[in-house]
Protein: Putative permease
Organism: Lactobacillus helveticus CIRM-BIA 951
Amino acid sequence: MDTAWQKFKNNIPLRRFVVFLIIVAFLYEMRAMMNTILLTFIFTYVIVHLIHLVQRYVPKMPTGAIVVVTYLIILALLYFFITVYMPMLVGQISKMVKSVMAFYESDESSRLLSYATHYISKNEIITQAKHAMTFAFHTATSIGTLTITTFMSLILSFFYTIELKKMREFTSLFVKSGYLKWLFEDIRYFGKKFTNTFGVVLEAQFFIAICNTALTMIGLAIMKMPQIVALGLMVFILSLVPVAGVIISLIPLSIVGYSVGGIRYVIYIFVMIMIIHAIEAYVLNPKFMASKTELPIFYTFLVLLVAEHFWGTWGLIVGVPIFTFLLDVLNIKSTKKDKKAKAK
């Protein structure tokens, strides 16, 4: 028995395969908390790299000071969003509702409704109205849940980064443990691999978000829309969600556009967002992802399509990192960071 166990521990490929299956099973059981896990990982990764960037130029800058200043900036941005952007959005929505009510009370709406009911049955209208109400309820619930999840992820990432050195020292104790040392070594191995691949894709998505924001702000400036800076900030944040973020930004932009120029501006914004979405999906996303991950554009785009089908929006975020991670683990293709480490 001891000999078989020792052979298993010495057989690194088999051992890592078993550990990989354990990690997959664990994540599957924790799938209800996957939003919190991924958001905490993203926030922590960004803050840790910001700490390294600042300390590269200011070596004596304390880690705690960098973390506190960063989170104060985040809180300031949230305050700006709640106090400046949200009232503006609520005002635009109220104007739109009043316009819809005025249209509904007009004679033109009566003729339009009678024309519609001539071709559409009453039951069909009621069914569609129920679906719309259900969708609106689920959307509102999802937004509330996502807000709480984001808040919890920010707290967890703050406590991790504020004690970064202590966290690393404590985590290293697991690798130095006795009986399960091999298990924690393999978990650290997979963790480093995934961090490298995810970081590469995160950098690519950051550049894509900058391009989307620049294109959108140029279009809004041409249309002479108000609050371009606030709208640009919203578009940048939503653009960090690959592909879907640009489409989500269509809703608040259309509301603001309707209050400025009516239905004509809504059509302009719809056409602009669809063009930017096409540029992101078919040009920026495959090109940036391919250049950062060194994958062919065809494979990158194919992975995005398959991952979105199975995992939805999160599939667009983690699809390419997971695919690159599997290539690296299977020794099919290493990441740029691993190549540089081997070269050194």
